[in-house]
Design a protein that fits this description.
7 helices; 10-stranded parallel sheet; Immunoglobulin-like; globular; mainly beta
Amino acid sequence: MEHKIGWVGLFLMVAGCGSGSGTTPPTVPALSQSAPVSKTVSFEPGWPDDLKSIAQSLKLNATLKGKDSLGKAAGSLGPVEAEAKGNVFQFVFTSVPSELVDAAIITVELFNPVAGLNSDCQKVGRVTQTVTFADNKGTFLVSPGAFDLSMDCDGDGISNLKEFVVETKPNDSVAAVPATPVEIVPVVIPDIDGDGRIDPEDNCPVISNFNQQNSDGDELGDLCDCKPLDENIYSTAVDEPDVLGFDSNCDGIDGNKTEAIFVSLHATSDNNPGSLDAPLKTLSAAVEKAEKEGKAIYVGAGTYSLNGISFSKGIRVYGGYQTFGLDPSFSVRRATSSEPQFDTVLKRDGEDVTLMLQDTSGDFVFDGFHFVNASTEKDSVVGARTIVVKNAHATISNSRIDGSALGTRTTAVAILETVASASDVVLKNNILDAGLGDDASTGVLVDTADAVEISNNVIHGGSGRFATGIVVVGASPRILNNTIDAVSHFSSPQLSTSQALIFENALNLTLTGNILVTGVSANQYGMGCVGMEPVDASRINANVLAVIPPDTDAVKSVSCLGEFDYVAADGLLLGRQTAESNFDFTGNALEDLLSDSQYQNQGAPR
């Protein structure tokens, strides 16, 4: 269910009817909620052949995603770990809202707990099915062919199951064949540099160093170490591009130049190899090459078109580099915020969406870009959206993301329609502006997408008549340490509504360490909830609600039962629960908030 007008428009039309007038705000429609219940799912798998041998060692987690009585999606519950009962596995979901209908989507993920591997690489299977409950109990019967075993954490085309789990063993039922005598040849472990240390135990295997001197204690001995007195810098270090421009492997760039494809507007041709000395000219050529070779892409300063580029297989793309290819002798480094001349702009002309990641495989990283949307919007209902992530794995970080300055509805980032746990999206360390929508502007929309983290961003609600920082619909994201600024910039403030955070049916919402700010508009709502309340109020904590400049008619929060709460310091009323340890700021300027002692003691997110 892609969010169009629905919930936001409903809330604005009903709740935004004159709170600036000093009158009591109208009641917001809400579901009549009763006590939560427990639901038990019995999982009875028919194991695929590749899983049979390891089935007993697997760890199983399940998530539940349902709809309310009005047919609207709810955020997922879980994950819950299975309890094995013979060949049957039971998942018990506690604190399930009784308003959820008796049919829900259950997603079971299977992990092989191999030591030393992260959870992505331990994941070997997934199966999803709709289960109907009777007396709060449901059965999940699954055939061998229903399992998805395609997880591939390193993107090499070999599934985790094949690469890390399945072992070929002799068939004991085959009659033994007399063995042919085999000459035993001693295994000689090489010592290339002849210093008396075999190569696997030599911290400098190509240069003789019998004393193994290693002054900084890193992986390499002094004679092989490019920086022998700095433990963070050595030639074999992992060097991913970072905001500090730190070259940790001494190859002259922030990153790994042998594992990257370079792009520069100053390059001569796309027939170049894409090396540092001979970069490609267009991003489209780099994407095609990166998907084939499994390399990252490093992009120089300038403006690049995404027209004609369709992203299908996960790649890592980093912008903000100095222009390279002109003088290969200099050290290539990434830009800092004080160096706008190194800005790397991505745009797509004539389209409502600048970056579209939809139904893709693998993990995407976009880091260090300025995303621009100049669309006048072809679809006035959905509007112009700068970044859309739909059923895809993506991390978007250290970037500037601008919503369109044209059209009626604008959104900086939309994260849409994913089955619980099937998609991981991380939005971190960005500056977002929702743009100028004559009707509505939204910084971030999370719609029916649960595996989402929004952290350490500055999010501006834009200049629309209805300006909103974050909207959550039927999802359970983690929203951490953001500054969400919905102070109105609409041309007629007396006609505008500003909202920092609005959420509906966000059952597993985590909201911690954020600043939620409204101001100027006639109608202001710091935090508003509709539908079922989150199941755990303790996940909503350490947030600061502020109105700048102060406005006694502004509504700091609206509970999930339609009740209005003006004093966040007493705890945010969610419905049956109260979220403690949230704070109400009454100063005159955002700068005062950032230096406020109470805020500093709470952790000062940004």
